[in-house]
Amino acid sequence: MGLAERRRALGYSQEAFAHLLGVDRTTVGRWESRRVRPQPAQRRKLAAALKASLQELDVLLAPRQIAGGESAGNRPGEPPNAGDPDEMIRREFLRILTVSGALVALPADEAEALAQGVRGGVPADFSRMNSHLWQVYQRSRSKGSVYPVVRDQLGMLIDVLTEYRGSPRGRALLNAAADLLQLAGEVAFDGNRYSDAVASYALAASVSKDAQAYDLWACALVRHAYVEMSESRHRQATQLLDVAEHLACRGDKSLSTRQWIASVQSEAHAALGDLDACERAMDRAETVRDLDPNGTNGWLRFDGARLAEERGSRYLQLGRLDLAEDALTRALKQKALAHGQSYRRRGAVLTNLAAVGAKRRDPDQVVAYGKEAVALARASGSGYAARRLQGLCDAFGPLGGDHRVGELRAEIATLSTQ
């Protein structure tokens, strides 16, 4: 870790860090690029701001070493300005693309174009990069593996935002920041870090408000509502969703924001035992089929593809087992939920089908679906999948006396929710 990485890890932009130390932002940039070293009088204050000892500060300021023992200043073949802040941003951006490109292919010329865009603080290129990261998140078996990339991208975006605050470009960059903060919240939520998720969603909502981006603002509230429902605070969730619905009415009607809100409202109504309200909300969600399917993106992915599994989950909550099993079985046959596709989605449907078996006191159904769901949870390392399976254990009741169900409970107990 170098000086810039340590600064970002502590949550400071270059401008905020410079203000804290009483120096100019360009001075911090020169320290981080290792073109100059802090004066002796500045070192103690710098170490304190970084929460480091003076010895640790020397390590943070030391030139990076590359293969063969060379220091990573201007390496052979690099342009003479390779240590400039803009060039550092470009190289960091390309590094992120290299990491994420292992999961989602991106042509080299497009990667370079994105890197050039970020040098000029081009909002469209940050948005395209965000869309790329959402794809990585969706396709990753382990959602937590995406976090370092998201963190680095946020650090770069915040630094660029300080340059364009209050300008039209700054407003567009706020949109990109609100988008990325929601992704950070999703990663935290999947890892069972609820407080981190709520903080990310709250920041996303605040930034969206500043940018007057009503759909982004509404989606941040929907994601916050998910946290409330995970903690069984369903009435609080409905209040958040009502506000989100009001905001979405001021947003882009070609987007599926309103339909996604309706789908989540149906889940809250089901948890509260209100079948009529649940079905009315699901019917509103079904109108997503009337929209252009190309209108979805990273932070808003509701296109109706999950309606069958969501309807099955709602019926399960309401105790309508036949309706639930029919909808869940249909969902499991979809291509998107086939073996090797979405581990998280398939695992959730399997867990629900096992729960149907538990309510019917059918140990064969519980074990058949539960075992596969456990295998998927292990393969993905998803805290979300582990939490769903732990909830399944609460429904075992007298089935816990069956040795096969007991073995399944023991396997679920070994799963990590982090």
Fold and architecture overview:
By secondary structure, this protein is mostly helical. It has 21 helices and no strands. It is 68% helix and 0% strand. The protein has helices at residues 3-9, 14-21, 25-32, 40-49, 54-61, 85-101, 108-119, 123-139, 147-163, 168-190, 194-211, 214-230, 234-248, 257-271, 275-286, 307-317, 321-332, 343-359, 363-380, 383-393, 403-413. It starts with a helix and ends in a 5-residue tail after the last helix. The longest helix is centred in the middle third of the chain and has 23 residues, at 168-190. α12 packs antiparallel against α13, α15 (275-286) runs antiparallel to α16 (307-317) and α19 (363-380) packs parallel to α21 (403-413).
